[in-house]
Amino acid sequence: MKKIILAASVVALIAVAIGVKSLSGSDVKDSMQAMKKNYAAAMSSTDMSEFSRYAALLQAAAHDASQQSYDGSKPNEIIYQAGMLELNQEMTALNQAVAANDLSKAKSILAKVNDSKKKYHTALGE
Ligand code: HEM
């Protein structure tokens, strides 16, 4: 009987953990998908009002990603957070170009974001 209660408790705990994880919102993968979508939309924007809308959504997704942890291993977590910091710095430069209404500069900054993406995806083996 004790064994059954123990097994039921373990199953209940796992169910709660899965529930909490799904309620806690998006994971890295979801944030990355949102970044991809809004990055592409910003790059194909033809005016600043359109660009800035997608740039804001890209930044919101990047912010979400920065709040998540990678895989729990210390070396990867350090690389991941370094990449998120770099992304955040690029977003600051991006906002300056948006504020200056300079669409071509803003797009060239986003092209650099793509280099960071490649660098960190490679570093993390993604
Ligand atoms: C604008 C820049 C970036 C874009 C557009 C982007 C896009 C993506 C996409 C499309 C995926 C695949 C998601 C899937 O499997 O469905 C991905 C995965 C991933 N990216 Fe990025 N990424 C960017 C920057 C970064 C940076 C700077 C880092 C690290 C600091 C990073 C870390 C990761 C990781 C860890 C995954 C694997 C997620 C998982 O499968 O759980 N990405 N990214």
Gist of the model:
Belongs to the cytochrome b562 family. The chain contains five helices and no strands.
Textual characterization of the structure:
The protein is mainly α and 126 residues long. It has one domain (26-123): Four Helix Bundle (Hemerythrin (Met), subunit A), CATH 1.20.120. 83% of the residues lie in helices and 0% in strands. It contains five helices and no strands. The protein has helices at 2-23, 28-43, 48-66, 74-99, 103-123. Helix 4 (74-99) runs antiparallel to helix 5 (103-123). The protein is elongated. The protein starts with a helix and ends with a helix. 17% of the residues are buried. Bound molecules: protoporphyrin IX containing FE. Protoporphyrin IX containing FE is lined by residues 28-29, 32-33, 35-36, 39, 70, 80, 83-84, 87, 113, 116-117, 120-121, 124, 126. One of its GO terms (cellular component) is periplasmic space. Belongs to the cytochrome b562 family. GO terms for molecular function: electron transfer activity; heme binding; iron ion binding. Keywords: Signal. It holds the Pfam family Cytochrom_B562.
Structure characteristics:
mainly alpha; elongated; signal; Soluble cytochrome b562; Four Helix Bundle (Hemerythrin (Met), subunit A); binds protoporphyrin IX containing FE; 83% helix
SSE topology sketch:
Elements: H1 2-23, H2 28-43, H3 48-66, H4 74-99, H5 103-123
Bound molecules: protoporphyrin IX containing FE.
